[in-house]
């Protein structure tokens, strides 16, 4: 399939003359296939938003070239704007207008016929669980409601390419799920989606391909499964009262299961495939030692793990995210 | 082209909603000129002797001061758009820069028309006795709108350029002082000579003189009202065009 978004050697620096701060983008290359979802994964400050702003014609790169549907984002900006939709990281809705008014305005600006606007607005308000709040001013919305309205605004047209910059940050699990469903539905209709996220899980659920940004470049690129394989599997993590306890249990676990248990302070980790049978057998072995763990959980690889494994360092500034239990 | 008109009307409706639902700003826009009017008439009115009722002299000045202040508030609205995600989204759509700003400008014209009517009402209650034919009224309102127009475009330019709401707010303050150094509140020949030069040649003065001679002919201080009106119109259209073009360019250039 053909690439619908390409970026070659993008460079961007916001540094003032004489300053030594490193460039934000330092030779970034990307490709999004038509009809697919690409997730750009990276910690705060990695340059995700900068990349999206360049691709959506809002920012000129210092060097490099980017195209959207064959149009150059700098020279043919107007053509690009006709076929994309952008939902930025910052919510773009008016507090003084109601939810329905905000969407209707965007529909008109997108030059949709009035009837289509009316139907589409109603459809999206329902899809994002905002129908009851449609005629309330956005000032009175919760943060999550605003975010949902903002996302709905980006979906009014059926764009060929949709840019979503951290669309689910600040959403509760239910809204996140609703967004994922909507994104899948637009992809089914043929829209290509360029998504940025800090959550591996989100990339996993939505994207066919994931690009990991670090230091202004793509550090790794592949399908979610490929990336996760590079990182390693999920693990059963047991936290004991003392490192001594951990030291007593680890060798027993290594002997009983075939894989090596690793010790980190009072914590022991055993790789697992996440199946009930395997987790139960690990726990039985621990129980038989008579040492009681303070806490245990099954942990899937997180963005931290991906970063650590692929770049050799932990991304900076990232908000701590609670560990997830693998399904 | 047909889209252009539709876009402008969409953005105008939005601008009007934003303006009409900002209750605090509306109260300020109406109360401020009323207080200033009261102050001038009751506090300074006794001291200023221009040979006629001071309220007839000063009302056009207060109207323009209020209009200027109201128009300058557009800087805040535009700045809010620029620093929120709104402009990012609009700029990623096939909507021209000028469209986005023109919505704010149209809303400002309507808002100021309303506040101007209120201030006229209050001043008439306080003893302002305009002696104008309906046609003269129309001309005066047209003049005020032209004035609001160029200040609003300047405000839009400022809103695009500044990087904080405080700076945008500072601008409305500055605009409010422009009429003080004109013939708005005292005849120009009472000013010190170094200020007089500025006052005589700044754009607010011919606008005030025009509105004043249209509404209250007897206190008009100019010999050639027609020439002054032409000058006022040229000033307003010229500055309006200049700032509209610059605002559009600055909007496009800011990335
Ligand atoms: N207009 C700008 N002026 C100066 N510096 C900027 C500008 N935009 C971005 N930066 C800097 O560029 C770097 C990358 O920013 P960017 O917003 O692209 O990161 P991000 O990956 O989107 O991060 P986050 O996850 O926090 O949204 C940051 O260090 C930021 O301070
Ligand atoms: Mg970002």
Write the layout of secondary structure elements.
The complex is a heterodimer of chains A (327) and B (255).
Chain A (H helix, E strand, L loop, with lengths): L2 E10 L12 E9 L3 E5 L6 H8 L7 E6 L2 E2 L4 H7 E4 L11 H11 L4 H14 L15 H12 L6 E5 L7 H16 L3 E6 L2 H7 L2 E6 L2 E6 L1 H8 L2 E6 L3 H14 L5 E3 L2 E6 L3 H14 L5 E5 L3 H9 L16
Parallel strand pairs in A: 3-8, 3-9, 6-7, 7-8
Antiparallel strand pairs in A: 1-2, 1-4, 4-5, 9-10, 11-13, 11-14, 12-13
Helix pairs in contact in A: 3-4, 8-11, 9-10
Chain B lengths: L1 H19 L2 H22 L9 H19 L1 H10 L2 H6 L5 H29 L8 H28 L3 H13 L15 H9 L2 H12 L9 H29 L2
The complex binds adenosine-5'-triphosphate (ATP) and magnesium ion (MG).
The total number of structural domains of chain B is 1
* Shape call of chain A: globular
Q: What structural class results from the helix and strand content of chain B?
A: mainly alpha
Q: Bound small molecules, which ones? A: adenosine-5'-triphosphate, magnesium ion
Order of helices and strands of chain B: HHHHHHHHHHH
Helix content of chain B: over 70%
């Amino acid at each position: 399939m053909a690439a619908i978004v390409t970026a070659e050697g993008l460079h961007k620096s916001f540094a003032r003359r004489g300053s030594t701060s490193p460039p934000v983008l330092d030779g970034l290359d990307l490709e999004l296939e038509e009809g697919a979802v690409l997730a750009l994964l990276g910690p705060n400050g990695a340059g995700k938003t900068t990349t999206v702003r360049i691709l959506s014609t809002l920012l000129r790169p210092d060097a490099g070239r980017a195209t959207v549907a064959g149009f150059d984002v700098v020279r043919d900006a107007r053509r690009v704007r006709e076929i994309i939709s952008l939902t930025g990281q910052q919510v773009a809705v008016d507090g003084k207008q109601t939810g329905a008014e905000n969407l209707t305005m965007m529909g008109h600006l997108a030059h949709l016929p009035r009837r289509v606007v009316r139907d589409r607005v109603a459809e999206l308000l329902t899809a994002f669980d905002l129908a009851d709040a449609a005629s309330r001013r956005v000032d009175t919305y919760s943060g999550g409601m605003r975010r949902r309205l903002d996302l709905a605004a980006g979906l009014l047209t059926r764009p060929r390419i949709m840019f979503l910059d951290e669309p689910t940050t600040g959403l509760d699990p239910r809204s996140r799920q609703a967004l994922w469903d909507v994104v899948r539905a637009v992809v089914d209709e043929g829209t290509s989606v360029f998504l940025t996220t800090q959550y591996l899980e989100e990339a996993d659920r939505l994207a066919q391909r994931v690009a990991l940004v670090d230091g202004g470049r793509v550090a790794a690129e592949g399908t979610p499964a490929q990336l996760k394989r590079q990182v390693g599997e999920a693990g059963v993590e047991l936290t004991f009262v003392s490192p001594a306890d951990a030291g007593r249990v680890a060798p027993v676990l290594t002997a009983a299961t075939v894989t090596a248990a690793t010790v980190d302070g009072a914590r022991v980790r055993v790789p697992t495939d996440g199946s009930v049978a395997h987790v139960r057998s690990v726990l039985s072995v621990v129980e038989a030692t008579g040492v009681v763990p303070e806490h245990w959980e099954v942990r899937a690889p997180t963005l931290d793990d991906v970063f650590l494994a692929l770049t050799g360092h932990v991304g900076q500034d990232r908000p701590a995210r609670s560990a997830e239990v693998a399904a | 082209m047909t889209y252009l008109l539709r876009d402008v009307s969409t953005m105008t409706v939005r601008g009007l909603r934003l303006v009409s639902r900002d209750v605090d700003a509306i109260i300020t826009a109406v109360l401020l000129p009323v207080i200033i009017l009261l102050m001038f008439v009751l506090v300074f009115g006794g001291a200023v002797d221009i040979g006629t009722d001071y309220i007839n002299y000063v009302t056009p000045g207060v109207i323009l001061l209020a209009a200027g202040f109201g128009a300058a508030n557009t800087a805040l609205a535009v700045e809010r758009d620029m620093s929120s995600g709104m402009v990012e989204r609009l700029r990623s759509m096939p909507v021209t820069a000028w469209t986005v700003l023109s919505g704010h400008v149209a809303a400002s014209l309507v808002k100021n028309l309303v506040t101007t009517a209120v201030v006229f009402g209050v001043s008439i209650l306080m003893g302002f006795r305009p002696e104008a034919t309906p046609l003269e009224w129309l001309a005066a309102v047209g003049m005020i709108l032209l004035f609001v127009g160029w200040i609003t475009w300047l405000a839009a330019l400022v809103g695009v350029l500044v990087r904080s709401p405080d700076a945008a707010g500072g601008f409305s303050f500055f605009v409010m002082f422009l009429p003080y150094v004109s013939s708005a509140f005292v005849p120009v020949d009472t000013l010190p000579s170094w200020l007089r030069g500025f006052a005589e040649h700044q754009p607010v003065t011919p606008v005030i003189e025009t509105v004043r001679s249209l509404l209250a002919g007897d206190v008009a201080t100019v010999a050639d009202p027609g020439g002054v009106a032409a000058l006022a119109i040229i000033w307003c259209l010229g500055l309006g065009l200049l700032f509209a073009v610059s605002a559009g360019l600055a909007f496009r250039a800011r990335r």
